[in-house]
Amino acid sequence: MFDTSLSWGDIVFLAQGAGMTLAVTAVSVIAGTILGIFCGVIRVQLGPYWSIPLTFVLDIFRSVPLLIQLVLANAFQSIAKLGWPPFTTSCVVLSLYTAAYCTEIVRGGIDAVPLTTRRAGRSLGLSWWQDMRFIVAPLATRVSLPSWIGLTLGVMKDSALVLWLGLIELLRASQILVTRLQEPLFILLICGAIYFLISFPIARLGGYLEKRWSPND
Amino acid sequence: MFKYSFQWNQALKALPQMLDGALVTMQIALLSMAIGLVVAIILTLFRLSGSRLLRGFAVAWVEIARNTPALFQIYMAHFGLGSFGIHLSPFTSLLAGIAFNNAGYLAENFRGALKAIPDTQARAGRSLGMTSLQAFRLIVVPQMLRIAFLPITNQMVWAILMTSLGVTVGMNTDLAGVTQALNARTFRTFEFFALAAVIYYLIAKVVTLAARLIASRLFRY
Amino acid sequence: MIEIESVHKSFGKLEVLKGINLTVNKGEVVSIIGGSGSGKSTLLTCINGLEPINSGKIKIDGTEVHAKSTDLNKLRQKIGIVFQQWNAFPHLTVLENVMLAPRKVLGMAKSDAEAIAVKNLTHVGLAEKLSVYPNRMSGGQQQRMAIARALAMSPKYMLFDEVTSALDPMLVGEVLDTLKMLAEEGMTMICVTHEMAFARDVSDRVAFFHQGVMAEIGTPEQLFGAPQNPETQKFLASIR
């Protein structure tokens, strides 16, 4: 059917690359989200003025190209003799990158909960923690989830850049095959299709949730 | 703490070279935005059109641009087109990849902006005797531009950051490319890339600030 | 003269107008009252051709609105309409809002359009607000601007679609006063309204719509003083 020298082994190789993409994404998104929720709550508690230092630092992660961040972090761990393998370095950088965006999403979510609703909770005798846990968190999650899904997909796509540190993720695996088999278009199309198949359904889910939850918020 | 002597002098000496690179970076970003905006408008019109073929084409473009990595899109331009015997220079592949990405995201923003303007606005125009084209041009588009302005500036910042990906396809004249070339010669990775990071950061901030200034002058309502 | 002959109109399966007949003569003010969903607002958007109709005829000065050969853009210049939601153009100042259609639709020179806009805005009491953007004004002021915007096209007929329904009670008076002033100047008007006092004081005739049918029409004295139709009686009793 296809005139290709792509072998079964090559397909396994691609799948392993995709596995690496997913692994880096999963670790970074989980760690970044936890850190992001933490920073987001701190930002809201401190108010816009006192959180300026935090906002400034997080903004750097959003204003410097990820590739540069990766190179810098790798150089830093080598200078500091931390001995981190590329996987660790990549996950640390992507986690901080995720956290920077996640903080904004969390802050937006919490800010979207009307103050009157929170006061109503507190006036029933709920503690700050109970108010956060039972009133704010459920409402803020609804507001934030679509953006968070978008962020997760963004990190998944941006994780392609870790190839620069030598990690063989999906795009790097495809590139290696391209060099060896000299069939760039065919192999890249497979690579793109894999990215698309991971991303598109989840993106649609995000869009659906947004549509479903926004009109009667 | 570290057994490493930072040599910032060397990096600072290379600053003029890097600033030249930054100009190339801005050039690619601006060009890719210009192309992206024009294509996005065309894609938006395609999406509104009655033809299923045009609509399908526009939707496919937008979904591929949004659901695959930007680096993949640049690779497609650089390596993928090789299958057709088309070999683009790093500059052209980088520009094509980012412009493709910009167009997809911008088209989606335009669609959202159009949706945000109530039908009653065009209706009010029609009831004053305007043709549908007049109502669209005089009433819908100006409001749409305001809604889409912030996403457009965000995309501009994205475009600047994306230019750094050119180094992976052998680009050596933009900021990331120049930095990487200096790095390869001296192995002062941290110093050079830290300086590059500062420059990228400043460019991003200046662009954001400029956009805010323009917006406050442009949209007084 | 506006002639409405057995107009039927459906949205999908829902028939909102079930054979409406009404003739409005030059200089006449007709108010339409009735509960929500009675089809009264839909009738207005059918009159200026914003909505198609399923059967029947609407004629403006003898021109059939829904005929294929009718130039609706031309026809609409004769008919001003003001909506419940005033639909100010948020990106234009008050003056620009009113100038836009005379310039772009009638092709007037800027200075002429400006003179007309200033005249009409002064007429509705907004002479001080020319360079303000609509979102800086109250709902009542925006609604008066919308009236001036329609008047700037020098329409022969004005349609008002519940123009006070979305306003704070405090602001209703200023808009109704503007309508009253227009009526006294001899403008031909159809007003869909919930303001019974206004309908009684200003209209030549009042029509009561009920579930897509014009249940009753007559002078204000007849309709409010001695309603014949039991639905009219029920409606009037319910709002007192």
TrEMBL record, chain A:
Domain ABC transmembrane type-1: from-to ranges: 18-206
Compartment(s): Cell inner membrane; Cell membrane
Database matches in Gene3D superfamilies: MetI-like
Keywords for the protein's UniProt record, in alphabetical order: Amino-acid transport, Cell membrane, Membrane, Transmembrane, Transmembrane helix, Transport
Primary location recorded for the protein, binned into one broad class: membrane
PROSITE patterns hit by this protein: ABC_TM1
Domain of life: Bacteria
Membrane topology classification: Multi-pass membrane protein
Keyword Nucleotide-binding applies: no
Keyword Transcription: no
Signal sequence coordinates: none
TM stretches of this protein: 20-42, 185-203
InterPro entries: AA_ABC_transptr_permease_3TM, ArtM/GltK/GlnP/TcyL/YhdX-like, MetI-like, MetI-like_sf
Similarity comment text for this entry: Belongs to the binding-protein-dependent transport system permease family. HisMQ subfamily.
Protein name, as recorded: Amino acid ABC transporter permease
TrEMBL record, chain B:
Source domain of life: Bacteria
Membrane topology note: Multi-pass membrane protein
ABC transmembrane type-1 domain residues: 22-211
UniProt keyword terms in alphabetical order: Amino-acid transport, Cell membrane, Membrane, Transmembrane, Transmembrane helix, Transport
Locations listed in the record: Cell inner membrane; Cell membrane
Transmembrane portions of the chain: 22-46, 147-172, 192-215
SUPFAM superfamilies in the record: MetI-like
Family: Belongs to the binding-protein-dependent transport system permease family. HisMQ subfamily.
The protein's name: Amino acid ABC transporter permease
The species this protein was found in: Kaistia terrae
Automatic annotation (TrEMBL), chain C:
Molecular-function annotations in GO: ATP binding
Compartments in which it is found: Cell membrane
Coiled-coil stretches noted in the UniProt entry, renumbered to this chain: none
Domain ABC transporter: 2-236
PROSITE patterns for this protein: ABC_TRANSPORTER_1, ABC_TRANSPORTER_2
Domain of life: Bacteria
InterPro entries documented for this protein: AAA+_ATPase, ABC_ATPase_HisP-typ, ABC_transporter-like_ATP-bd, ABC_transporter-like_CS, MetN_ABC_transporter-like, P-loop_NTPase
Alphabetized Pfam families for the sequence: ABC_tran (PF00005)
Membrane topology according to the record: Peripheral membrane protein
SMART domains, alphabetized: AAA (SM00382)
Keywords: Amino-acid transport, ATP-binding, Cell membrane, Membrane, Nucleotide-binding, Transport
Similarity field: Belongs to the ABC transporter superfamily.
Name recorded for this polypeptide: Amino acid ABC transporter ATP-binding protein
Organism this protein belongs to: Kaistia terrae
Lineage: Bacteria, Pseudomonadati, Pseudomonadota, Alphaproteobacteria, Hyphomicrobiales
